[in-house]
Amino acid sequence: MSCTSGSCGTSYNKKRYVTFGILTVIALVLPFIRINEKHFFLLSFDKKQLHLFFTSFDMQELYLMPFLLIMLFLGIFFMTTLGGRVWCGWACPQTIFRVIYRDLIETKLLGLRKNINNKQKEPTGQGGKKVLALLIWVALSLVAASNFLWYFVPPEDFFAYLANPMEHMTLIGFMLAIAGFLVYDIVMLKEEFCIYVCPYARVQSVMFDEDTLQTIYNEKRGGVIYDEKGNLINTKPTGETDECTGCEACVRICPTHIDIRKGMQLECINCLECADACTKVMGKLGKESLITWTSPNEVVKGDKTHFIRFRTIAYGVALTIAFIGLLVMGSTKEYMLLNINRTSQLYKIKDDGKNVENAYTFLFQNTDSKDHTYYFEVLDDGFDVKKPSKPFTLKAGQKTKEVVIITSDATLAPNQKENTPVPIKIKAYATDAKETIVVLRDTIFIYPSKDAIAKEAK
């Protein structure tokens, strides 16, 4: 295998940096984008609302959250089955933050690290620059912590709250706690978080198969460095056809401090920096990189990677079903919420037993972004709404509690000794949008026994 000197392979690093930049811009900008005062995603505990795809849902409509969580986990499983720990190396905030701190601030900006290709050697001395690097990261951590909170406290409220910090100490506390964790994590814990703390490393291995894309060293071309038990044989292969030069550029550049030539390891985050390092070395020899992002099947057996297989189809189908379920449930949003509770008094007998009243408490909420006027009616014959006597108006997002009295002058199959529960259906609607904003609720009307009516008539 050969190629033009210095041009073999692909620069994964440049693609990662572009991906990091795009994801960072999206994360920072998305909370500020609103359509009709609705956010793309917002879980507001303050306002007790969920915003999803620029539609707002009340907390009582959080039946959507299981669909979101199912999609999150299925998406991770699907992505891992296809591309291994591609999330870790290409999209995880931990990785992005470490690249910003180590490669941008420490190396490019302040020159603490003399060589960006050597991540094994920590910078020594230069106390002033280390303090400056820490201060820069503290400032960026506060921005990152604020950005995280914007998905729970929208920016328009967040900055208003910051103007009166003493009245919003809980928010300030959360922001400082998150920022403090990020400082400790990125400056002190570093990649140890990926290796020892993050549970994903332990879970992802069970999702791999022979067609999962991984960062793989080609032993057939490069030669054997470690035996089957993981013991080092030689730093440089001794075979006549072995192409590995033993330069260990792939080892020095690895952020999690592993030797990819040892085989698949839980510490590998699929950043492919080792592949770029090998590409540069082998390119000078006119050869292709010994480390590539490919599948075991392709390296060991020479077969093509099968992206469409049982696992990926199964995850894809499950993900599609969850997404359709989310869309269907989201499309059934109610722009008015209504809970009906009975009062402690079962009934009142009026007009010498000719009329029976039942009292209820109706809890209304206008979940639309507009003001509406509401009223309701009983769909069953023989019932009338005595109170309230006219429609009432609720502002957008407003809640109210209405005492409702429903009366009946019909004889509802009374029992001689016992009360009779009669099922009734309530139709509540916005009088200014009667066709679109309407809900139906079932409740019970208690009709007294014959003995109770006779006693009241006397």
Can you tell me the overall shape?
elongated
Q: Beta fraction of the residues?
A: 15-25%
Count of individual helical segments: 15
Oligomer: single chain
Distance between the termini: 108 Å
Structural features, described:
- Among the domains are: 12-192, no CATH class; 336-457, Immunoglobulin-like, CATH 2.60.40.
- Helix content is 39%, strand content 20%.
- It is built from 15 helices and 16 strands.
- The protein has helices spanning 12-29, 64-83, 86-90, 93-109, 127-149, 155-162, 169-189, 192-197, 200-204, 219-222, 249-252, 273-284, 296-301, 310-331, 450-457; strands at 34-35, 38-39, 41-44, 49-52, 55-58, 214-217, 291-294, 336-342, 348-350, 355-366, 372-378, 383-387, 392-394, 399-408, 420-430, 438-447.
- The strands form 5 sheets. Strands 8, 9, 10, 12 and 14 form a 5-stranded antiparallel β-sheet that branches. Strands 13-11-15-16 form a 4-stranded antiparallel β-sheet, with no helix packed on it. Strands 3-4-5 form a 3-stranded antiparallel β-sheet, with no helix packed on it.
- A hairpin with a 4-residue loop joins strand 9 (348-350) and strand 10.
- Helix 2 (64-83) packs antiparallel against helix 14.
